[in-house]
Amino acid sequence: MPHHQTEQSDNKIIDLITLPIAHEDIKKYYEIAGMDYQAWSEALNMHFGYLERWTDIFSLEKMLNQMSQMVIKKLQLADFSQPTALDMGCGMGAVARELVRIYPQARVTGITIVDSQINYGNHLSQNENLHEKVKIIKNDYENMSFEDNSFDVAYAVESSCYAQGAGKEALISEMRRVLKEGGRFVIIDGFLKKPAKMPYLLQKAYLRLCRCWALPCLATMTVFEETLKKNNFKNIKIEEISWKVAPSVAHVPRVTLKFLFQELWRNKSLKLAPERWDNIVSPLLTMFLGLWRNYFGYYVVSGEK
After folding, report:
1. Pairing state of beta strands 134-138 and 219-220?
2. What is the pLDDT of residues 70-79, one digit of tens each?
3. CATH class of the domain defined by 3-304
4. Where are the domains of the chain?
5. pTM, to two decimals
6. 204: Cβ–Cβ under 8 A, 6 or more apart, which residues?
7. Coil/strand/helix, residue 12
């Protein structure tokens, strides 16, 4: 059952809904369903896309790459001679590899708690001869083992949602600790726009999405911004990019049907593990939640220490 937290302040009521998701739940989901992301992206981009040009609307992989490139651009890596980057929740390392292709002088440390992502992600980097520039290691972004002031930049691409709390307090605090003075960050993800009680059907869909993807909760933008300010981040910029992301989300039904037909053809059966079914259902739920623009949005948040 979800845990409800309600707290009152001056003139607003915060109705936060979180699920008791543990690290083991996240690891189990990705160990079982992780490789299914190949149906979404041959390069194993484990995120939605960003539409730069309307002529690219039918090219899903191009939009996925453009999302990575948008994040990299906002990190402003040209300001550093030999930038050190931290990828917080790196998946299979697709964004990290794109970063060092664009900035060969950079070095990226990707962190994840999922063993299969470490093994396969490093394998992919080795295949591209990028293993000296991209290292994926086991680490928890809410309790990192790195020393203070270790990185020039840090980013999280659709991974901050796995942190605890509506403000993702531990993630933000740790990110500040390991960034150097003047270091930059970029976080992209889906957010709840404000603390508010959802209509019943919407709340059910939201909780199902969280269960499917093993998420404790999405961050609430107002609380998230307050947390950044409390941690003394400056030049904070918050941009909603929902309409730029929507064209890639529109590919979900096509990719889902293709995946199901391929499974049926290969295995003569659709007896999938629950985690694999969850990975099919969750993107469809994302399409539904995206219609409720008063409650949900997709954002890019940036700033510096």
Report:
1. unpaired
2. 999 999 999 9
3. alpha beta
4. 3-304
5. 0.93
6. none
7. strand
